[in-house]
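Case 857 in the screening queue. Each case pairs one protein sequence with one candidate compound; here the compound is 2-acetamido-2-deoxy-beta-D-glucopyranose. For every case the pipeline is the same: read the inputs, emit a complex structure as C-alpha cells, and attach any notable structural observations.

Predict complex for case 857.
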Amino acid sequence: MSTIHITLSFLSLFIFSFQDLFAASTRHLCRPEQRDALLDLLNEFEIRKSSFDECYINGSYVSPFPKTVSWKNDSDCCYWDGIKCDAKSGEVIELDLSCNGLHGRLHSNSSLFRLQNFRFLTTLHLSSNKFTGQIPSSLGNLSHLTSLDLSVNQFSGQIPSSLGMLSHLNYLDLSVNQFSGQIPSYMGKFSHLTSLYLSYNQFLGQIPSSLGSLSHLTHLDLSFNSLVGEIPSSFGSLNQLTRLEVGSNKLSGNFPIVLLNLTKLSVLILASNKFTGTLPSSLFTIPSLNTIFLSNNNFNGTLEFGNISSQSQLQLLTLGNNNFIGPIPRYIPKLVNLKVLELSHWSTQGPVDFSIFSHLKSIQTLMLGHLNTTTTIDLDAILSCSKSLRSLYLSGNHVFTTSKRSVSDLPSQSIDTLYLSGCGITEFPELLRTLEHLQQLDISNNKITGQVPGWLWKLPDLYSVYLSSNNFTGRIPSFICELRSLRILDLSNNSFSGSIPLCMGNLKSTLSVLNLRQNRLSGDLPENVFQSLRSLDVGHNQLVGTLPRSLIRLSNLEVLNVESNRINDTFPLWLSSLQKLQVLVLRSNAFHGPIRQASFLTLKIIDISHNHFNGILPSDYFVKWSNMSSLGANEDLPNERYMGDEYYRDSIVLVNKGVELEYERILKIHTAIDFSGNKFEGEIPSSIGLLRELHVLNLSNNAFTGHIPSSMGNLSALESLDVSRNKLSGEIPQELGNLSSLAYMNFSHNQLGGLIPGGTQFRRQPCSSFGDNAGLYGPSLDDVCKDIHLPATQQDETPEAEEEDEEVFSWIAAAIGFGPGIVFGLTIGYIMVFLRTRVVHKSIPPKQTQKQSTTTH
Ligand SMILES: *[C@@H]1O[C@H](CO)[C@@H](O)[C@H](O)[C@H]1NC(C)=O
Ligand SMILES: *[C@@H]1O[C@H](CO)[C@@H](O)[C@H](O)[C@H]1NC(C)=O
Ligand SMILES: *[C@@H]1O[C@H](CO)[C@@H](O)[C@H](O)[C@H]1NC(C)=O
Ligand SMILES: *[C@@H]1O[C@H](CO)[C@@H](O)[C@H](O)[C@H]1NC(C)=O
Ligand SMILES: *[C@@H]1O[C@H](CO)[C@@H](O)[C@H](O)[C@H]1NC(C)=O
Ligand SMILES: *[C@@H]1O[C@H](CO)[C@@H](O)[C@H](O)[C@H]1NC(C)=O
Ligand SMILES: *[C@@H]1O[C@H](CO)[C@@H](O)[C@H](O)[C@H]1NC(C)=O
Ligand SMILES: *[C@@H]1O[C@H](CO)[C@@H](O)[C@H](O)[C@H]1NC(C)=O
Ligand SMILES: *[C@@H]1O[C@H](CO)[C@@H](O)[C@H](O)[C@H]1NC(C)=O
Ligand SMILES: *[C@@H]1O[C@H](CO)[C@@H](O)[C@H](O)[C@H]1NC(C)=O
Ligand SMILES: *[C@@H]1O[C@H](CO)[C@@H](O)[C@H](O)[C@H]1NC(C)=O
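Case 857 output:
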C-alpha cells in the first residue's frame, strides 16, 4: 500500500514539475532591463558570510543559503532563486532576498527603485540581512506591494511618510530593527492589512487609534517597543461593550463599528511596552482571539474577564509582570482551550484557589511565579492538575510537598520543566523521582540541606539543573559525569566539599556550563576537565595547585573564573590559544611572576587583581587585544546580547566605580581590565589607549611609575578609572577631561601634580579621588575640595553616584531584548522571553555590595 502511495505521489510530483518546465519554455524570458537591474541591485551590497550563522525566518531558524548564487547574467532571471515573474507579462512580481547576508544601505537611487523597473512588484522580502540606515522614501513607489518584509535588519530612523502609498499591503513586517518615532497613523488606511508586525523596535508614543479601522487584521504584534498609553480608545471602546452587556447606557457612537472592525483579530501581542491603565475586560471575549500577550507592561488595577462564553478560542495568554493586584480572574477556568497561561508577579495579596487550574484540560505551560499569595501551594496537587501539563513555574511562592504519593498516583509524568526557585522548600521533593521526563529543574534559593539524592542523577533526560543557594553537603557525585543529556549544572553557593571528581575528563560529556562557585571544594583542579565546557566557574572555594594545562583543549571555553582560591601558578599565557575566551578571572589567588606579552584577541573582561604578579608591562602590551579595541563587526541579534544562552547567563562580580558590582548577566559589549592589588612597576603601557571599547580600568594598588599616558584620552567608552595607590607622577593628562562617559575616577595616593583637567566629569568627583598627591590644583578641584592639600582620609568616600548610576547603566538597560518576536506557533521559548525579561529588569542596575574597592580580599 504505502509503496504504491509513494510511487503515485512521486509520479504526480514529476508530472507537475514537467508541466512547470513546459510552461517555462513557452513563457517570455525575463525582461533584460529587469535582469540588469537585479544584478545592479546585488552589486550595491556586500555579501558577508559572517552573518550566515543562522537566520530567523517565518517563525523558525533556517540554515542560510545565499539565493543569489543562482543569479547569472546568462540565465533567465525569472528562474533565479528568490524571483517570481508574472506568467503572462514576464514582469518580476516577487523578490525574496531574505537571509542572503546582504550588508549595506538601501539608497533611494538603488536600482530597486530606478526607472520604475519593479513597479509591479507585489512581494518584497528582505528579512534577515544587515541593511542599515533609513528606509528610502522611494519605496513608496512600489505601489503594488501586498507583502513587505524588512524584519531582522538594522534599519533605523522614522518610517517614511511615502510608505503610506502602499495601500494594497496585506502583510507588513518591520520587526527587529531600530525604527524609532511614532507608529504612523496612515497604517490605519491599509485596509487590506491582515498582519502587522512592528515588534523589537524603538517605537514611542501611543498606538494610533486609526489602527482600530483595520477590519481585516488578524495578527498584530507591537511587542518590545516603548509604546505608552492605555489601549487606544478605538480598542478601549470595547470596554463599553461590557457596560452595554450589563445594561449601561454609556454608549458612544462608534463603538460597535470598531468592535466589528476588530472581530478577525486572532493574535494580539503588546508585551514588553509601557502600557498603563486597566484592561478592558471584554478584550477577552472577542471570539476570534487565539493569542493574547500583554506581559511586561504597567497595566494595573484588578482584572475580571467578563462572562466568557464556552467557545473561547484562547490558547495562549500572558498577563504576567504587570501591576495587577487582587484575585486571579475567576473566569479563567472557562478558558478551556488554554495551552499557555502566564500570570507571574500578579500581586494577589491574599489566598489563591489553585484548584481552578485543574479545569484547564489542555494546559501545557503554567507560569504562576511570585503571586504574593498567602496560600502555600501543594506541589503534588498542582502537578496532578492536568495530564497535558509540561512546564510549571512556581518560583517565588511558598510550596510544600507531602511526598506521600506512590509513583503511579501522579498523572502528570510528562512534566519536563519545573521551576521551584525561592519556594521555602526544606527537603528535596521525593516526588520529583517520578518525573521521568524532567529536563529542566530549578530548585535554587531554597533551604534544602543534606546530600542531593542519588536518584536525581538517574533521570535520563536532565538538561539543566540549578541547585544553587541551598545548603547541600557532601561530595559532588561522579554520576554527573555519566549524564549524556546534561548541559547546565549549577551547584553554586552550597556546602559541597571534598575534591572535584576526577571523572571530569569524560569525553562523552556534553556539559556546557559548570558552576561550582562558593562551595567548600578543596584539592587540585582535576587534570582533565570536560572539553565541551563553554563556562567554568570554580570561584570561592579552597582549591590549590596550578591551573591544569589541559584547559587549552577546551576549545569552546568563553568564561573561566577561578577567583578566591589558593591557586599558585604563573600567568597562564598559554590560555591565549583559546579562540573563544572572553572572560578570565584569576582574582585573589597566589598567581605570581610577570605576565609577559599576551595576545588575547577575544578577551573582553580580565580580572587578575589581588595576586602577586610583578614586572614591567611593555608599552605595546595591549596592541593585540582586539576585542576591547573595536566591537566585532558581526553585531548580534538582540537575543544574543548577553553571554550565555537562553538557559544560562554568565554572571560576574567586578569592581566598577569603586564598589563591587554583581552582574547577574554579562553584556557581550561589557569590557573591563582589573590588574589592581599586584606589584606591577614601570610605566602604564601607552597602548592602553587603543582599547576604545574599554568600560572599566583598574590599575590601583601597584607600583606603577611615570606619567599617566595621554593616550588614555582615547578611551571614549571608559566609565570607571582607578589608578590610585601607585607612584605616578607628572600631570593628569588634559585629554581625560573630554571623556564624557567617565563617571568615576580615582587618582589618590600618587605623586601627581599640576592642573586638573576641566570638564563636568572631573567636577563630579569627591575630593578624596585626588587626595594625597604632590600638588594638584585647578578650578575642578576648587569645586569639590575646600582644601586641596587635604591628606586623604583613611576611609575614602563612596562617590555620590546614584544619579549617574542610571545613566551609566542605561547601556545595560538599552540592550534588553531577546529573540525575534514573530512566533506564531505554540512556542514555549517565546513565553520564556517574557519570564526572563523580568529577571533582567531586576538585575539592573547591578546589585551593589557594601564593600569598597580598597578592601583587601
Ligand atoms: C548582462 O549581459 C549582457 C549581454 O549579454 C550585457 O549587455 C549586460 O550589460 C550584462 N549585465 C550585467 C549587469 O552584467
Ligand atoms: C510562513 O510559513 C507559513 C507556513 O508555515 C506560510 O503559509 C506563510 O506563507 C509563510 N509566510 C511567509 C511570509 O513566508
Ligand atoms: C546613490 O547615492 C549614494 C548617496 O546617496 C551615493 O553614495 C551612491 O554613489 C549613489 N549610487 C549610484 C549608483 O548613483
Ligand atoms: C518615487 O518616489 C519619490 C519619492 O516619493 C518621488 O519623488 C518620485 O517622483 C517617484 N518616482 C517615480 C518614478 O514615480
Ligand atoms: C471600521 O472599518 C470601516 C471599513 O471597514 C471604516 O469605514 C470605519 O471607519 C472603521 N471604523 C473605525 C472606528 O475605525
Ligand atoms: C494605575 O496606574 C496609574 C498611573 O500609572 C494610576 O493613576 C491609577 O490610579 C492606577 N490605577 C489603579 C486601579 O491602581
Ligand atoms: C454567564 O453566562 C452564562 C451563560 O453563558 C450564564 O448562565 C451565567 O448566568 C452568566 N453569569 C453571569 C455572572 O452573568
Ligand atoms: C504582597 O502582599 C502584601 C499584603 O498581603 C502587601 O503588603 C505587599 O505590598 C505585597 N507585595 C508586593 C510585592 O506586591
Ligand atoms: C548564597 O545563599 C544564601 C542562602 O543560602 C543567600 O542568602 C545568598 O544571597 C547567596 N549568595 C549568592 C552570592 O547567591
Ligand atoms: C550548612 O550546613 C553545614 C553542615 O550541616 C552547617 O555547618 C552550616 O552552618 C550550614 N550553613 C547554613 C548557611 O545554614
Ligand atoms: C607558591 O609556590 C611556591 C613554590 O612553588 C612557594 O615558594 C610560594 O610560597 C607559594 N606561594 C604562595 C602564596 O603560597
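Case 857 observations:
- Confidence is low (pLDDT under 50) at residues 1-26, 232-260, 633-639, 787-857.
- Residues 2-26 form the longest helix (25 residues).
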